[in-house]
Structures are given as C-alpha cells and as structure tokens.
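Hi V.,

You were right to ask for the full record rather than a summary. Here it is.
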Amino acid sequence: MKCLYITPFNPYPARSGGALLTDLMLRKIGARCPIDVATFADSTDYSPYPGVESVTRFRKDPLYRLRALLGKFPESLERHTDPDLERLVLTGRYTHVFCDSFTPVLNLLRPPDSRREAGAYRTILLSHNVESQVERENVQYDAKRFPWHKRKILSRDVERMERAEAALLSRFDRVLSVSEHETRIMKERCGCEDNVRTLPVSFGAKGTGVPENRTPDTILFAGSMWWLPNRHGLAWFFENCWEGILAARPAARVILAGNDKSGFARGMAQRYPNVTATGFVEDIEPFFRQASVFILPLLIGTGIKIKLIEAMGWGLPVVSTPKGVEGVPGFEKGRHALVGEDPLDFAKAVIHLLQTPDLRERMAREALSWTKSSEKALESLLDEVFCDA
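Predicted structure:
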C-alpha cells in the first residue's frame, strides 16, 4: 500500500489553517502507509514526516489564465496543473491518490484513466472548503481591492467552480469534508450522497483544563490576518463589542496573534485601547496557555474553523458567533463554547466568561473531552479509508 499525496500547501512550519490540516493528514496517513508527496508549494522540507519517502515539486501552469479563458474550468483549478503530475498519477505505483483540497483536482480527474475507472486505486479528496462559496464571498465582501476586470473574472469563476464541483466531486471514491454543514451542501448540489463523509478534526488534547497559569482578563484571537473572514470578523468585534467589554472589565485586553503582512492587526491596535498585535509568532503555544478566553467573531467563511479546534485542544474557553462553530461534528452550544448571536450577546458572553472562573474550568474540561472523542473518530475513519486496497 502506498499513497500519492497531492497538495498546494506548505505544511511545515504550519502557518495557516490549511497548512495545519495538511500537517495533520501527513502525520496520520504516514502512520498507515508510505507517502510520495507531489506539491505545488515552495517548500520541499518534509523532514518532520517520517512516513514521507519522496517529495516532488511541480510547476504551476504559466498559461493558466489562457487555459481558463479558452476552457471551462476556473483559473484556480487550471493554475494547479502540470502534465508531469498527470503522468505520475497514471503510473500505477499507488494504491491511494489523496488530493489535499479541490484546487489540484484536474491532475487526477482530467486525464482519461481506465485503471481509475476500474477501481485499481482509490481516489480521496480532502475538502477544506466548498471552494465556490469562498470565491463568492471574495467577490461579495472584498471586491473593492480588485480592479473591475478582475471582479468580472472572479464572478465568472464562481459559476465555473460551482459547475466543476458538481461535475467532479462525485467521481472520487471518498470525499472527506471537514464540516457537517458542507457535507450537506455537497450531497444536495454535487451528487455526493454515497461518497462524502465528515472528517472529525482533532489535533489532540494539549491542555489540562485547569486554568492555574492563565492571565486574568486576557482575550486571544489567533489567525492569519490576510484571510478575509478574520479581518471582517475582527472589525465587527471591535466596532460593536469591545467598548462594552471594557466598560465591564476595564483591565481586559485582546491579543491578536498571527501573520499580519497586511497591517490590519496593527491598525486595530492603534485604533482601539488594550489591543496588542504580535504579528507572526514562531510558537503559538504560550498564547494558548496564558489566555483566559478565545474569541471567534466570524460572520463569513466556509469549512471548519481550525482555530476553534486548536483552542479547544488547549482547553481554552471559546466565545464564537454561529458561523464560527457551524458544521462542527458533535458540537453543542453552551457546552463546548458560548455562542453570541449578535454583538450584545457576544460581548455579554465574553464578560461572563472573564468573571466566572468555575464556568471557564467546566468549559475547558468539556472542550478537552470533545477533542479526545474527535481524535478517536478521526482515527477510525482514516482506518476505514486506508484499509488494504
């Protein structure tokens, strides 16, 4: 048994939610069978992954815009294609071909392959998001930063991506969706009634649930500031919630930890009191260990929110919007996190957690219990997917 793992991400060091998910999959799959990695990313450093036997970097198609203009697939799919990778898929060396996100899918499904159709090897897609929804939100909420001709292309590509998802998702032997909400979407729109499963995501329990060393009144948000849903949600939080939280807890402070090349977090720190922007940090662990509350004020976005899974694994109590916890398998509002339906509810939930140590400890223990249960379910599903071919 051997797996070809096709990815557009740099998994190490993991600096985004997508990379963290790739890191997790490489470790889990590598414990089950040898892996050859085919990557479109810059890095070929896979030393942390003992299951990886080889890494080959493939070139993004320099003519992808022309191919998208003349063809039927969107730019993001045409960009991540290479004829050499298509030929590698067809060699017959692999029992499993694992496509890490939808963007490299054409390398696997566009070339005619009678062996694939006959089931000689298994094809698996890890769906990080419903990509058409991501592109639709980019057009809807972030259009100002694109020139008019780019907005037109993006709008066209939303429709093309929807058609590509409908045509291609059902051709995989197994589609692993990270969100129950998106599992339902795929079943309804893409004919994936039989082959899609929700993948329980867990990075393992790292906290104890006992908040003895946590810094009082410290609120954490960790995430990349280049990601539109993060910027959009944090702007909403500071404009609508932060003043009320400070009125009730004057010592409260927010730490914004994560890649900030855009300068967004620095701007928030300059505009609002008691806000610290760290920029990219090599080690996020101390922040998860010290904070009292984690906030997830997301209003848009697809897929599961990896930052939620991380916080729960550290036993850090979470306050989220409904969008932030959407589709999380086995999740219960009020038990695993507090959920604010509007700005007032969100601010009240943060204040309540900050001033109630017993509630924070109870929620931390519930989050760790959920994490351990999800890890068992993850192992079970991967055992099923990577059984002997």
